[in-house]
Amino acid sequence: FTTLILLSKKKKGLLFFFVLTEILWSQPQKPTPTAIFRAVFWDRFMSSDLIFSPWGNENESNATLFTTRVGFSSPSRSFAYYGQSPLKLFTPIPPQTTEETNSSTPQLNQVAEFSFKSEQGRIQRYLLILLKQQQGTGFKVFPLSMSQNDLPFGSFVCYSQVKEALYLAYGDQKNVLNPGKSVKFSYVESEDLDKSKLKIFT
pLDDT tens digit string along 144-161? Predict the structure, then answer.
């Protein structure tokens, strides 16, 4: 707020006019995330503190780094990402020298990377399943889209990592689920419990 004082001369003295004016400062708009992620380990008893840069600028000296805890029994908390594809996940490298111990910038080891397609004005949402690589120390990323365009309300999606085709029946809906693929079903509301069961055949 500012106060504007106007003075007007009169014969018998000064006449004061007080005018209050309000300055409306435009509030800076909060940045919109490119994507929102949750992560979970596929392998039992796996857990790790994973580091990422929300702005995707982990190579810069002034980069902001966040740590998120990921386990195997339930998905992690959601974390927002404002940078461009790909999202990179890291683990800290233990310091080897006194200089590295005293450094404010941690040494990072990249363990996973996920490329995704960003769209203007649309926040992508993914659940990232992390699988141990057979060779090396990194993780393979298996993404599940949680965006409403891919997973509308009243539907569910089945994914398969089985090496053979599966045959799925849900109510009157039938689908073939091939290895590494997915199929979508619309929710069936029925008092007949048999119609609301998902049946899987080999």
Answer: 999 888 888 889 999 888
